[in-house]
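Private note to self, pasted from the team thread so I don't lose it. Backbone tokens:
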């Protein structure tokens, strides 16, 4: 460049984000973006690029287009401040990002055309390369991901706050029928979707002591002097809405040490000591859900929770400072949603930041906190309601314990005025559990500090008020509400089931994807024989793909024309995978005994992970695989019964399983499942449900119609009656010869290569205590399965029921759920973002 050609150093016009060279959505622009990133970002030439290189290049090119919208959203929020949602969650099971972003941008075909220039004929070849982010485990994390996508699609400004786990919970292998956990190294190939922001790091303290002092205004204060610190480095992941300009963010915190290297320790030969602080600090964001079966594991979990909550609240307060907004207006600009009890320490931490750092008085700080925080309860299981040992809590968070004591003192004073002389209710509602070893009840802290407490299904929310927290609900009835869970139709129908999506687009238009109530139009086709046949053929096409996957990954050949009977979810006794297995054994026995008339040919599919320290759940996996080995090796079962366990169940696999399922197993003990979201994904994709009146099953049945749902099992009231009368599983076993024969086969070692002791703990549990009432529900479950077989014989009728399940599940869109949060809990509205400008 000569002196007569000066560099153009002009900055982009404020508010202008429409750069056609970096933001074009046509195939040529995408190809040019890929080529640029191959060369400049990855250091590769097209002829030598691997599929992973092409995946990275395409992802970076797509991220460029997200950045236009992300920065426009940031600028719009700066120019016109409004309330934003802060969604705090220990998990975000976001799944693969590339195809989701291509769909939301509307450029899947353009990306495929661009890839053809690199010799790639199918977009799927590149999508298969993508690693699944190990940022979550199950329904809690997947719900958070759906909610973030819906927030962006509804144009609600939001930040999801969590932890950037270096390793996910684990990858699951099956060896000799047992679950084997191996490290989930999901970051090993790089992750193109995150943007580190080291200049926005936060400091977090742990341990140490507190000191009291009098401030310059004569007020009593407490000063926390932590013994150790960590630094939280934010990594931002853009979250794009469906065909909108707004792009929210997921801000994930990575832990770093305040001093990474001790040069003196290194010089005197203490090589481990030189990096000890770095290793200790970085452990905070190392792995999702460390085993809490040890003191160190519990300590690490509590440190993780405080770490990401403290970073997140500091970040929110800093955002107000950066925009010149007063901290007193925190509730005006932030609404803080606690996704279960994992982030419940936020109540105490926000109080600490306001009182200790911002020098507010107690009443003002409590007013801000209680107007900002809301709490979602996700479980009725006592063991899942977090309680922290008082000694552990005081050693790790001494200042927070002081604040919790004061919150509790003031709350108990309210109780004394409301219930004078009632010491029992004070003990029951106190944040500090005085029974046995003293502990901090995090659900009580969240309930007292929140302006709203919601359950996640109508039945669950009722049980929260009547069984879990009845006295709190009586004290503050206005706090308690319901928001039934939902799932995003973009991922779980449009992406996961393109065959069904194409059928819907052709017959009811494309608007269903952002307005799921439009699926009701399908009801007009419920008596159209030609359409119903087309519906069935679409399902069969998807089942063939899953059958191919099963054969490649397990070696089991399955017939796509059989009934695909599916239970995929976390392995847990209350979800009752063992109830399903017992009915499989009964089906097996009927075939062996020549009593299989009218039985539908089935492929029974299981998938899910057991927590590493949960022995009974791991034994259930071994039980499933023992049955599968026996059944699949028996020639009498050919064409009649197959059993499959899909290893390492995750979002990517779920995208194949949900669309291909005929029957959805939602068979948890009534009153145990808060909501479920898998049940919604199955129904949206046309699977019929066999289930109990538990969680969102109740609402699914009401919406799809009782005649299109296979109901069985004891109700919550009937379960409670059995408990009160002294439940005896033996009485139910003695009434069912088939059940006795099934249990006898297990006891003999028929499904364990003659080892009669292998499944003894499981048998003793079922025939003795039976805590989840498997025996009580077995006979009715078998009756419902017979009704399933009968319905399957009339395929046109089955297709009609399948169609009506899809048509009537629009209510379960996460867009509806988020709309209810916005209106009834958060009081937030949409943000308008413009990414166009006059570039002349």
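Design output:
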């Amino acid at each position: 460049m000569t002196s007569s050609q000066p560099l153009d150093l002009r900055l982009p016009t404020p508010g202008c984000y429409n750069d056609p060279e970096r933001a074009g959505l046509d195939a040529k622009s995408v190809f040019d973006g890929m080529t640029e990133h191959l060369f400049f970002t990855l250091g590769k030439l097209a002829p030598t690029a691997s599929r992973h290189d092409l995946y990275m290049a395409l992802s970076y090119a797509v991220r460029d287009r997200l950045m236009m919208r992300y920065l426009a959203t940031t600028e719009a929020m700066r120019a016109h401040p409004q309330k934003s949602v802060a969604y705090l969650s220990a998990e975000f099971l976001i799944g693969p990002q590339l195809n989701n972003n291509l769909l939301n941008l509307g450029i899947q075909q353009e990306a495929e055309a661009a890839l053809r220039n690199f010799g790639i004929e199918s977009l799927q070849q590149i999508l298969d390369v993508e690693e699944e982010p190990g940022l979550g485990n199950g329904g809690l994390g997947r719900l958070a991901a759906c909610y973030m996508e819906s927030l962006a699609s509804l144009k609600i400004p939001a930040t999801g706050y969590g932890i950037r786990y270096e390793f996910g919970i684990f990858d699951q292998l099956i060896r000799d029928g047992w679950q084997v956990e191996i490290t989930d190294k999901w970051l090993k190939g790089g992750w193109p979707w995150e943007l580190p922001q080291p200049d926005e790091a936060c400091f977090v303290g742990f341990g140490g002591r507190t000191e009291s002092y009098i401030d310059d205004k004569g007020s009593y204060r407490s000063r926390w002097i932590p013994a150790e610190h960590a630094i939280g480095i934010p990594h931002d992941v853009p979250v794009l809405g469906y065909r909108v300009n707004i792009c929210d963010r997921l801000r994930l915190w990575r832990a770093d040490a305040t001093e990474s290297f001790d040069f003196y320790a290194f010089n005197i030969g203490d090589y481990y000591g030189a990096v000890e602080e770095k290793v200790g600090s970085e452990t905070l964001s190392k792995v999702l859900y460390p085993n809490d079966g040890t003191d160190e594991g519990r300590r690490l979990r509590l440190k993780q929770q405080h770490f990401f909550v403290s970073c997140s609240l500091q970040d929110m307060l800093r955002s107000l400072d950066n925009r010149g907004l007063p901290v007193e207006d925190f509730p005006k600009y932030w609404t803080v949603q606690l996704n279960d009890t994992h982030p419940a320490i936020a109540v105490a931490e926000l109080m600490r930041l306001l009182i200790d750092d911002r020098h507010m008085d107690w009443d003002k700080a409590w007013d801000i906190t209680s107007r900002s925080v809301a709490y979602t309860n996700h479980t009725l299981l006592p063991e899942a309601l977090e309680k922290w040992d008082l000694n552990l809590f005081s050693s790790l968070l001494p200042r927070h314990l002081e604040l919790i004591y004061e919150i509790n003192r003031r709350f108990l004073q309210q109780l004394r005025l409301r219930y004078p002389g009632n010491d029992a209710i004070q003990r029951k509602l106190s944040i500090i559990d005085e029974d046995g070893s003293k502990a901090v009840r995090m659900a009580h802290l969240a309930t007292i500090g929140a302006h709203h407490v919601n359950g996640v299904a109508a039945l669950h929310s009722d049980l929260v008020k009547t069984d879990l927290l009845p006295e709190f609900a009586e004290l503050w009835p206005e706090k308690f509400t319901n928001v039934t869970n939902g799932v995003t139709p973009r991922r779980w129908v449009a992406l996961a089931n393109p065959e069904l999506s194409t059928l819907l687009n052709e017959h009811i238009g494309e608007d269903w994807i952002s307005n799921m109530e439009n699926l009701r139009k399908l009801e007009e086709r419920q008596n159209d024989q030609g359409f119903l046949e087309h519906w069935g053929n679409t399902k069969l096409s998807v089942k063939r793909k899953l059958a191919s996957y099963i054969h490649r990954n397990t070696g089991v050949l399955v017939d796509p024309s059989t009934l695909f009977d599916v239970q995929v979810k976390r392995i847990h006794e209350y979800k009752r995978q063992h109830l399903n297995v017992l009915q499989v054994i009964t089906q097996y026995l009927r075939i062996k005994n020549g009593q299989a008339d009218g039985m539908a040919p089935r492929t029974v599919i299981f998938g899910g992970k057991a927590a590493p320290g949960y022995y009974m759940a791991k034994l259930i996996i071994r039980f499933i695989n023992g049955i599968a080995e026996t059944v699949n090796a028996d020639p009498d079962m050919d064409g009649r019964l197959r059993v499959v366990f899909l290893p390492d169940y995750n979002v990517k696999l779920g995208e194949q399983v949900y669309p291909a399922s005929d029957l959805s197993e939602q068979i948890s003990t009534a009153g145990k499942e808060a909501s479920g979201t898998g049940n919604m994904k199955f129904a949206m994709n046309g699977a019929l449900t066999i289930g109990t009146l538990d969680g969102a099953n109740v609402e699914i049945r009401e919406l799809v119609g009782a005649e299109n749902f296979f109901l069985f099992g004891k109700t919550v009231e009937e379960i409670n009656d059995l408990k009160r009368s002294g439940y005896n599983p033996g009485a139910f076993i003695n009434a069912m010869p088939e059940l006795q024969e099934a249990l006898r086969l297990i006891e003999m070692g028929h499904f364990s290569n003659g080892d009669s002791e292998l499944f003894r703990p499981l048998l003793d549990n079922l025939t003795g205590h039976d805590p989840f009432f498997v025996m009580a529900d077995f006979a009715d479950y078998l009756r419902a399965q017979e009704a399933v077989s009968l319905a399957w014989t009339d395929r046109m009728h089955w297709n009609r029921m399948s169609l009506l399940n899809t048509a009537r599940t629009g209510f379960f869109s996460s867009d509806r759920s988020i709309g209810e949060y916005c209106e009834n809990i958060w009081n937030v509205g949409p943000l308008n973002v413009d990414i166009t400008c006059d570039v002349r």
